[in-house]
Inverse folding.
């Protein structure tokens, strides 16, 4: 079917439309997972391993069963589901079987009348362990004498090598070489709403409804179908309001299988909501990566070749479909050259199992780590040659005339604005003036620094933590009274899809945005889709919404043309009416057209199906579209206390055509704040015995209002070839912020010879550098 | 995360407590250890109060106790007897939004909405005490409420704007306000 691309006058697309979601959320009427209360529900408390590695000698549940109000206690003997990854021949029993492999692994589940009772009883489950020496570092995991986390296989479970032809020569013949090891410590997403799941069986139909705080409703249903061995149409997944997700809610967790299986077998609704300690112990961890890097460059600072050996620690088990360390190393090395023309790379990746919590997705995945390397080598080269960090970027940037640009790592970049975004960002922060002031302030004993990150964000890819669904679906219905209902397979968690999708649809149909309702998250009503992850929803979901509404628009025009006895090309949709162009008197309202389409079908043109409903799947022509931008951070380091204050922060962002600049800026603000956490505050710390010692938000520190500066954000719009010209942008801000902030600290402390290669940077570390001498690259 | 079901366990000692919540008096049978947050949410159905950490850190569960912001996860329900409790529902007008809520909407001061009720409660208490707080004060006061989505910038802007609206008599010209926001964004770029 050909789509009429009429001369649209978009009213909503591109505008700062306030969100349709907000009224309910502001009034406290959002309905999150834990707000679902069903009479008769059993509440779950998990008994979790307090050992990083041990054989389970025995589990005594009698004491727990004796607690009044306890309905059942399950161990692996009662629920034998295993999350098995064939590729690595490793399975994670949903309740630990025979052996525990990380602190926080679920060992038993207590089902009780309320959570207080369940937790009381959980304390009475007696587990006898026989301790094993834990594997806690890359070096232990890789050593010959090291113990195996999984006895039947080596700890090294993923190894890849990639080298461009001619690398060796380019590297050996380069005038200069430098080396650095970049490290990011364990971090995690910490959505303010913890994970949770509730399931209930419909006794009449036998269907199982599973409520879950998740990013990909259909992917989750597919996984349940397989693991519970139930027909897909017997499972309904409902994702209610989601209080933040950031990647960690795209994963399949063992607790969900226990809850779903229990609802089925105990005949009662079953609910589990993670407490914060459980979240920090067993939500997907991320970023536990080390990059050993060598860079070869010429006298001008042009980078000729990069060698990177990546070590990733995925923890005890691979998440199904997304072992975090593999995903991270894949992204980091694929995007290693960032916005720069680096002709040669040699990349080796080694990923290992350890006795720590499993790694999965966290916003940006390997992006921030790769960007830390990509920007770190630029700053390193600048320092070695005594050049300005901006100048070294300028000499290496991919230029406009280079697009489409194929990177040495095999990506094909669509057009972006790499150099332009940096020049604008430097102008915004008044870089030249800063350099003069910086020198003067240093003489006064004040240490200010600027860090730059020009990022490239792959978005709307065929594969992401949201699974390998390269398309998105929209079903669109104009109801008999003329209001519009759209359903998408997305899984938003604050991104405002109900608003942005409605903006696109309303413009195509010429109706008011308030007449469009966007539903999502319920597999009984939403078409099969990939969900939200990998910055795909605005671009692929938006594409589906656009295509569906264009098709609907064509139906309306065809019907109106027939009724008005006019040619289709002479009919336009304006303000809720289909009219003969420029003749508002000859018009039908969308409401009338809908009524006719459903209830007065004798008036339809020959061959037109009654009703107004379409389902469209949109698969972008590009395997990925790359957004970009530049972040510049200005920090002051207090060399007496070691504290870093972010004084100014600018972002020039390019995500193609903007659907709603207000929402885009909100995403950027939040990502930068997470970047501040990543660079200075957030670290999941295991002690030498394998205990996680950051199990509250007093230990795992999140940025507060006083830690985040006022940011300045502007936009460049370089459209993608995807429908609508959109590029995804959900992760770029968290990709760019950590390197920009780390670079700013390096710059501020350059007089001390400091070059930051490890994040987060703690005040103690800064004091050691400043007082104890040089940390030189 | 605690949940309290109606069918509480037989034999577990309960005590009667009278709570005044959003101006309404409720007499309830509770276990002495039940948290105020759980009783508000699961006994009274006031699910606008969210529980994000149960460690007294995140501030999502903030309610007003006699007008002062308190963590409802750090209080037992029985401790609330004799005090006036106000939740986000009690700060919400019958129709539409309060000036503070409306400012949050105009400034896109919320994304996932989970921390939002706690932010509204904390900011409401601030504005009652200080009708013209500067940015530093707002950030200081809000530093006990964690938000993972917004980076706080738009929340601070919303509180400032709501303060202005309230000082000027509570009338909001949405056109002007929306414009003001665009100007603010543009102005920041200058």
């Amino acid at each position: 079917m050909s789509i009429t691309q009429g001369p649209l006058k978009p009213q909503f697309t591109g505008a700062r439309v306030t969100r349709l979601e907000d009224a309910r959320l502001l009034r406290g009427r959002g309905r999150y997972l834990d707000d679902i209360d069903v009479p008769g529900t059993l509440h779950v408390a998990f008994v979790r391993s307090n050992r990083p590695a041990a054989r389970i000698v025995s589990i005594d549940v009698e004491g727990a069963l004796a607690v009044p109000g306890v309905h059942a206690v399950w161990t692996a003997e009662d629920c034998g589901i295993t999350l098995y990854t064939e590729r690595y021949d490793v399975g994670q029993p949903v309740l630990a079987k025979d052996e525990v492999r990380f602190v926080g692994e679920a060992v038993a589940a207590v089902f009780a009348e309320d959570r207080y009772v369940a937790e009381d009883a959980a304390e009475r489950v007696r587990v006898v362990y026989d301790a094993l020496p834990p594997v806690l570092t890359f070096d232990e995991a890789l050593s010959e004498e090291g113990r195996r986390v999984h006895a039947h296989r080596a700890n090294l479970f993923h190894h890849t090598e990639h080298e461009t032809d001619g690398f060796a020569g380019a590297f050996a013949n380069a005038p200069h070489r430098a080396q650095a090891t970049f490290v990011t410590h364990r971090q995690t997403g910490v959505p303010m709403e913890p994970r949770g799941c509730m399931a209930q069986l419909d006794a009449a139909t036998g269907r199982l409804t599973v409520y879950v705080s998740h990013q990909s409703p259909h992917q989750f249903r597919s996984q349940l179908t397989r693991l519970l061995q139930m027909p897909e149409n017997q499972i309904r997944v409902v994702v209610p309001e989601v209080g933040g997700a950031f990647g960690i809610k795209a994963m399949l967790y063992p607790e969900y299988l226990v809850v779903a299986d229990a609802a089925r077998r105990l005949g009662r609704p079953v609910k589990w909501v993670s407490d914060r300690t459980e979240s920090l112990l067993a939500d997907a961890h991320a970023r536990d990566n080390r990059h050993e890097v060598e860079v070869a460059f010429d006298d001008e600072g042009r980078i000729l070749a990069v060698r990177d050996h990546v070590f990733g620690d995925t923890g005890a088990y691979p998440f199904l479909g997304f072992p975090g360390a593999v995903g991270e190393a894949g992204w980091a090395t694929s995007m290693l050259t960032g916005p720069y023309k680096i002709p040669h790379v040699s990349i080796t990746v080694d990923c290992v199992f350890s006795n720590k919590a499993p790694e999965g997705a966290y916003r940006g995945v390997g992006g921030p780590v790769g960007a830390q390397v990509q920007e770190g080598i630029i700053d390193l080269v600048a320092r070695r040659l005594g050049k300005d960090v901006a100048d070294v970027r300028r000499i290496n940037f991919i230029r406009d005339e280079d697009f489409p640009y194929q990177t040495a790592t095999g990506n094909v970049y669509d057009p972006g604005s790499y150099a332009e975004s940096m020049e604008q960002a430097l102008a915004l922060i008044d870089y030249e003036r800063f350099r003069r002031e910086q020198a003067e302030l240093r003489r006064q004993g004040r240490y200010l620094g600027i860090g730059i990150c020009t990022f490239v964000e792959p978005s709307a890819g065929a594969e992401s933590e949201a699974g390998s669904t390269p398309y998105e679906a929209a079903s669109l219905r104009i109801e008999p009274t003329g209001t519009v209902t759209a359903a998408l397979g997305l899984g938003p968690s604050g991104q405002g899809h109900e608003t942005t999708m409605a903006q696109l649809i309303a413009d195509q149909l010429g109706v008011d945005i308030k007449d469009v309702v966007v539903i999502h998250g319920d597999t009984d009503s939403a078409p099969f889709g990939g969900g939200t992850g990998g910055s795909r929803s605005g671009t692929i979901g938006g594409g589906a919404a656009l295509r569906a509404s264009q098709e609907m628009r064509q139906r309306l025009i065809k019907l109106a043309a027939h009724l008005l006895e006019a040619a289709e090309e002479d009919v336009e949709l304006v303000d809720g009416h289909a009219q003969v162009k420029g003749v508002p008197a000859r018009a039908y309202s969308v409401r009338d057209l809908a009524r006719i389409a459903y209830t007065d079908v004798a008036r339809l043109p020959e061959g037109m199906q009654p009703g107004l409903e379409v389902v469209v799947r949109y698969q972008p022509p590009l395997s990925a579209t790359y957004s970009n931008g530049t972040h510049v951070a200005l920090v002051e380091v207090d060399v007496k206390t070691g504290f870093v204050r972010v004084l100014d922060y600018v972002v020039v962002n390019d995500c193609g055509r903007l659907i709603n600049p207000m929402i885009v800026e909100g995403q950027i603000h939040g990502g930068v704040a997470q970047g501040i956490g990543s660079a200075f505050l957030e670290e999941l710390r295991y002690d030498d015995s394998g205990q996680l010692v950051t199990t509250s938000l007093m230990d795992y520190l999140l940025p507060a209002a006083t830690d985040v500066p006022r940011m300045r954000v502007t936009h460049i719009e370089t459209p993608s070839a995807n429908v609508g010209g959109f590029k995804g942008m959900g992760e770029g801000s968290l990709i760019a912020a950590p390197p920009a902030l780390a670079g700013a600290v390096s710059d501020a402390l350059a007089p001390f010879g400091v070059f930051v290669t490890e994040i987060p940077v703690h005040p103690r570390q800064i004091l050691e550098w400043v007082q104890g001498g040089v940390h030189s690259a | 995360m605690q949940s309290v079901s109606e069918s509480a366990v037989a034999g577990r000692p309960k005590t009667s407590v009278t709570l005044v919540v959003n101006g309404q008096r409720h007499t309830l049978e509770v276990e002495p250890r039940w948290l105020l947050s759980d009783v508000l949410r699961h006994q009274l159905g006031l699910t606008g109060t969210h529980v994000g950490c149960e460690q007294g850190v995140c501030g999502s569960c903030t309610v007003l106790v006699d007008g002062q912001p308190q963590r409802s996860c750090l209080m037992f329900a029985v401790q609330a007897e004799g005090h006036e409790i106000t939740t986000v529902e009690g700060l919400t007008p019958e129709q539409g939004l309060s000036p503070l809520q409306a400012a949050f909407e105009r400034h896109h001061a919320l994304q996932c909405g989970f921390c939002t009720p706690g932010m509204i409660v904390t900011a409401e208490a601030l504005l009652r005490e200080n009708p013209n707080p500067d940015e530093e004060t707002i950030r200081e006061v809000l530093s006990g409420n964690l938000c993972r989505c917004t980076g706080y910038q738009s929340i601070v802007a919303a509180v400032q704007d709501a303060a202005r609206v309230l000082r000027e008599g509570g009338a909001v010209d949405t056109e002007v306000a929306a414009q003001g926001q665009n100007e603010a964004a543009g102005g920041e770029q200058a």
About this structure: Chain A touches chain B through 80 residues (CB under 8 Å). Confidence is low (pLDDT under 50) at residues 1-7 of chain A.
